[in-house]
Description:
- This protein has 7 helices and 2 strands; from the N terminus they run H-H-H-H-E-E-H-H-H.
- By secondary structure, the protein is mostly helical.
- Strands 1-2 form a two-stranded antiparallel sheet.
- It is elongated and about 55 Å long.
Amino acid sequence: MTQMIDRPDRYGLVTRLFHWGMAALFAAQFASAAVHWALPRENTLRETLWAYHADLGVTLLLLVLLRGAWGLRNLSNRPTEAGPMGFAAKAGHAALYALMIVVPVLKIIGAAGGTRGFSYLGWQIFPARDAAIAWTETISEWHGTLGWILAALVLGHIGAALIWHQIIKRDTVLKRMA
């Protein structure tokens, strides 16, 4: 039977499901943002994908929080890497987690003070305001920029896994996550 919790030699099933499930959802989220940016207004694909962007973002935030709690519970059991690359891996993961939390929270704060309101999966979270609160609009403007920085970090994460672990070191990191 597959172990549910992490071990020093392999990540557990729950960690792997979080990792790969969230990877797929982040790919969809970045694709919706890229299509929204690249295609003209009134484009059907653009509007269809963008309609899911906010709900997917909140879902990802909730999953990040759950995954973070799960990771902290398993921290002493997780596989580790020593030396400068171990430090770089920890710093990279900390940056990823920070942005995975900050990016959606900035937009939620912006929505709380915005004129459109905010709902999640059809549930009204914040009602629309008659007038926007200026500081929340300013905070919300950072959402897109930091989102693209997050996308760049994700690509760096993938590159590090493939280039450093698979090609240079030829170690078992990818097998531990598969």
